[in-house]
Specification:
The chain has eleven helices and no strands.
């Protein structure tokens, strides 16, 4: 009996040692992967975009396999159809956007003159009523920031276009391999997960991937709906640059809470400059933005997005600010699913440390 007890204790020690080594190896692999992704943004960005598309499109693969399509061909079919859905509208709308962009260049000096003139009026009124001189620093700062931003965009445009062309070839390739070999990649990573955290790791990654895919898809649908509503509304009132303004509203709508406000600013400024504050067209323009955002807040966001996020509004705002601070616009977009992932992890840690501890 004594010898059998020693054997059991020795096996326990060996098992703990092996489990500790597996934990060290697994942690090293995760840290190495994260380090590579951090230091190689040229690979990380298209890889991340491909992974997001994979999370959205992967439910189509089992459906196609049920129809008798082999996995490799099903993956290729999904990639080709996705390329068509993305590229066809761009090809159709690109000439219109290019034409509107060329015309918009002539309005930039007009907008600057309008801002300077009205700022002087506000400056005089503030000084007459309060005796405080707000000075020109605010206006100069805004105009300088806008000019510097435009210059930086023009200087980096060749590099950006080169990256887009590169992504055009890399992203479909990554997406194909994710769709075709995603299960094998997942199983290979699961093989090195220590037994002590296997169930928790599997549960967390499953929930995170599901929430991330659903969230990105929901935000894409939401942005498409809002962009379409604003574009159609502005076209109905014969507002110039309707397509560009609708596209800006759609892209900025991806940013939680602040996106609709940011997307409305260019349209309102243009309406003030072109039509004047008291004109019926400007009133109609403001009404279009207000109606679209009310529909978004009252119907689209609660139905599509809020149920997926399940975060307190204060947490959402703080997450967006932190995402902007560390990763700019991209950080603002992914801040919500990342915050949701942290909530899942903290929830599991709480259950392990407190709930399980109370049971013991």
């Amino acid at each position: 009996f004594v010898s059998w007890k020693k054997i059991v204790e020795a096996n326990k020690v060996n098992w703990k040692s092996i489990e500790r080594l597996r934990m060290i190896f697994f942690s090293s692999v995760i840290v190495s992967i994260m380090s590579i992704l951090y230091f190689l943004p040229r690979i990380t960005i298209p890889l991340g975009i491909s992974y997001l598309f994979f999370l959205i499109l992967r439910p189509l693969i089992p459906w196609l396999r049920k129809l008798g399509v082999k996995e490799g061909w099903a993956s290729l079919l999904v990639v080709l159809v996705s390329l068509f859905v993305v590229i066809y509208p761009i090809v159709k709308i690109a000439p219109v956007i290019g034409s509107e962009a060329d015309r918009f260049e002539y309005y930039v000096p007009k907008i600057e003159v309008y801002l300077r003139t009205n700022y002087e009026v506000i400056q005089v009124e503030v000084k007459e009523r309060t005796g405080f001189d707000i000075g020109d620093k605010l206006l100069i700062g805004v105009l300088t920031s806008a000019k510097n931003g435009a210059q930086a965009l023009l200087l980096n445009l060749p590099k950006l276009l080169g990256s887009v062309v590169e992504w055009f070839f890399i992203i479909p390739l990554f997406l194909y391999f994710f769709l075709k070999d995603g299960r094998g990649i997942r199983d290979g990573l699961l093989k090195i997960v220590p037994n002590s955290i296997f169930e928790k790791y599997y549960n967390l990654t499953y929930q995170f991937n599901r929430k991330l895919g659903d969230y990105i898809f929901a935000k894409f649908i939401e942005a498409t709906i809002i962009g379409t509503l604003i574009t159609v509304g502005l076209l109905a009132f014969d507002v110039r640059f309707s397509i560009i303004l609708g596209l800006i509203a759609a892209l900025t709508n991806i940013i939680p809470y602040a996106g609709p406000v940011i997307g409305a600013i260019p349209g309102i400024i243009f309406g003030l400059v072109e039509y004047g504050a008291g004109s019926p067209t400007f009133g109609a323009l403001v009404a279009v933005y207000m109606i679209a955002n009310v529909i978004d807040l009252a119907l689209v966001f609660p139905i599509l997005v809020s149920k997926l996020v399940d975060l307190h509004p204060a947490v959402v705002v703080i997450s967006v600010i932190l995402g902007s601070q560390f990763m700019g616009m991209g950080g603002m977009i992914i801040s919500i699913p990342v915050a949701a992932a942290f909530k899942l992890i903290l929830s599991e840690v709480y259950k392990e440390l407190f709930v399980a501890g109370r049971r013991l």
